[in-house]
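Chain A, query sequence.
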Amino acid sequence: MTEPAFDDIAACVFDAYGTLFDVHSAVERGGAALGGKAAAVSALWRQKQLEYTWLRSLMGAHADFRQVTEDGLDYALAVHGVEDTALKSRLMELYLTLDAYPDAAGCLEALRAAGLATAILSNGEPEMLGAAVSSAGLSPLFDDVLSVEEAGIFKPDPRTYQLAVDRLQVPAGSICFVSTNAWDAAGAAYFGFRVAWLDRFGQRLEQLPGAPAAVIGGLDELPGLLNRQRNG
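Chain A, predicted structure.
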């Protein structure tokens, strides 16, 4: 993909779950009781969590991300025949302290050293999002942490992306948005952000309006991409 100029970028805004935080680390750390079902439960949990955000948005039946996450876990456990309330409680607790990906802190430090504002824009409910950021030691590396709860609807509704424009006071075209979720990357690009799609898992782009301006394989590639374009 041909790299366009990022020379006017003033802020980098990140998705949280799946981009900065490993959504499967809760089951990896606390799902031993699931045995051979652990990976399948974790994958279905994530799938239903996302599906419920989209479906609730379409239905006009908003619930915060904590509730959606719990509903997705209930579904995944039921499908796999797991009835263990203590395990469910433990997994929900661990979701508050998901592991940050190893490339997250270094990327953020480099961006801030380059004079760029940094923020999170996430579906996460404010308290659970704050807990994840704090437990990972990333709080000092963000100018702001934004939750879609302020808009009352989930991404990729345009009102969610507008939150970053309004809060940071930066035009959409001067914001680099980073997400590993291809549907989120499409939504953000269609809104008007300059998107760096973080293809951590060798996925395909979605067949949706909105194309990323660049594709990166890890967050460690982002500072170089932006500095090269800004200084080139």
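Residues 38-59 form the longest helix (22 residues). The chain has a mean pLDDT of 95.
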